[in-house]
Predict the 3D structure of the following.
Amino acid sequence: MEVSAVINLSRRVSRRLVIACASVGASCVVAHEAEAGDPPPYTDYCEMLSQEIQGRKHAFLAGNKTYYVGGAYHCYQPHEDETLGLTHPFFHDLRGRGFGLARHEGSGYGHDFRGWEFYINTRVAYGTVLVDGKRYRTPAPVSMTWRPDKVICKYKVGGVRIYEEKFIAGNDAGCSIIRSDKPIRIEFEGRSLYFPNQSLRSTATVRFDEAGNAVHVAEGGEVITHPVRDETTAGKLIYDGMSTVLSASKPIERFASRVDDMGQCHYSFQVPCDRQGTAIAWAMDDRYDQARDAAQAVLSDAPAALAAKTGAMNDLLNRQVPYFRCSDEDLVKVYYFLWSIYLMYYIDVQEGWETHPHTQTAVNNFLGMHRYDANFQIKVGAWTADKRYYAYGNVLHWKPLLPYARDGGSLPDNKGIAWYSPVWGTTTEHVIGAWQIYQHTGDEQFLHDCYDDYFRELFKDGMHSHWGCHYDAAERLRDMAALTGDADPDRWLRLVQIDGREAWLSSMWEKERPRFFGGGREHPNWSGFAYLRNSYFPEAWAHEMAREWAVDTEKGFFWKVPLSSRAIPALENVFDPEFSSTPDTNYYALLGMYKSRVGRIANQCALAHLRGYNMHWGIPIAPEAWGAGPEPWGDQYSNFNAGKILLFLEGMAGIEYSVPDDELTVCDNMPEEWESMEVRFPVDSGGVRHWPRISYRRKVTERGVEKSISVEGSPLERVTIQPWLEEGRLKRATKGYSRRGQPRDHVGYRFKGSRDPSVTLLIDKRE
């Protein structure tokens, strides 16, 4: 399906879908109650993002506290094919981090340095096809299609065609709907959770609840845990005391079970299947009746539950995130793929320290939000529509860890309901992200929640640099202090000794080599580019540095999958070649180039990175890293990539806005190879949700490059438009522009009271 083919779905929700939403707790496809301006056209993004993944990567689906991994690909290396049924559904509400649950004074209750991939040891419902007297054990699909709402598997087994749809419903129950073109039987087998070489004992039991048509596994046992480094202790199994339930839309037949010598429970059962279809459902809960009821609620109308899930995912991608289109349809898909992962990882536990909904980092390493990753995930959340749900929690999530803070604003790097990871690091950039959320909402109560008993205490004795952003963070803390009534706002500037900033800048520029910022005596590394994102970094230095190092293919960073994490000559002699190119380093470097108005080189690097890193096999991907091969490595659905969403919105589109200042700024860097770009983003003002539309157009003519930028439907009083001149000479332009005080290679227009301003330019290009 072409990206440009917008599917105008009906806004009228059928009675069947409404019933499904009510029964399984899924959100329905509805427009915002009060919308103004020009809301984006409704698009079936689940269909747009559909991709063939068989033989390439495992499947991944997400609910709130439950997830699904189909098959197993360890760091992109095939280990196990997906098959009929539900191979690795798992429950993870952040009660623990790994294999088990143990208490330790150095990490709370539930932390484990091992077992972050514990789901690999789950084996829930592996299907075997029985047809014509033959058994076809766990057949691999001939096709597996991933979408944000479901996974579609197709099989050819013994002359029978089988079609399967797997999804996680709105009530967190996993479901598989299976249809076959001939009558068959399917035998499913599974087992209780047990970790070889880690489990000390199993107390699990299994039974068949005939009245409830359900297989019930009561999980339990003890495991070896690693609550802190270099220390082990016995703890409860991560699932201890929980109930796993499997049920089916048709009567379960030939149930059998056994317990092996290790105490692990094994079970099997059969169900018939034909063209009318059979559904199986899985659910987990601390109470058996709750799990059973969740599974059976989905099975009461599985197609409707799936339609509700599709509607809910499409609603998120249509009504929660900025609309983006450009001339490169592959990159439009990358943009929405990254958003889909970001949203799929959201979790809302409401227990213990988990009091706010927030996104998470990955499924391959560990679930939970990582303190370092939050530096950019917080900023991404600032662009969502419902910021109370999708933005505030990414900041306030860390507040319960204040008693464990260390000097400079260091906090543990992850946490759950009652545990924290005993590894500390900086949170300085969280302040800047929190301020951006305030700018996008004007919510002073949110500032009070962040500042009064959190930031003010966290940073009272100092602030780590985090590649120089402490100066900007101190200014934001000063602004927060002034707005919240703190007595001495300027103390934050004194804390970081801001008067010494210029001297520090001078000492770091060309410290080790010409036209490079920072250290690295033998070879420069990517972190030199991270400084470019700071508001005070000199634009001229940024341009020199990018020209000398960013696009150099021999001594610089323009590797096969740019930008590399170290200068190219150093890549051959690193201890971690798997991380030759990483998403976080490119977020910092590339957004830094855009913030410092590097222009053409920023686009060259960003487009090469997005196409090389986030496109593979002709489909969008989001790996944890790219190895030296080059080949994708690590987690295959990594929210470590989230920061790159900002390359589109804040980099190429160049959008900033402030609700309290009543101002919108558009300072573009639209790539010269594109003919058009369009962004519509949600802004709440006066109780109404607006969707300002910003259109960018570019056309090459005999006279030069004709370029226009228009803004429609903005509720903000003031609009600033700063078109990029593409390193050319301005020949003609809409009257009223200024060159004074503008970013490098831009001119500026200021409008007040005009809701739909537009400008047009003619540029004489200098090749």
User: Anything to note?
Assistant: Residues 1-33 have pLDDT under 50 and may be disordered. Residues 31 and 70 are 33 Å apart (CA to CA). The longest strand covers residues 123-131. Residues 510-645 form one domain.
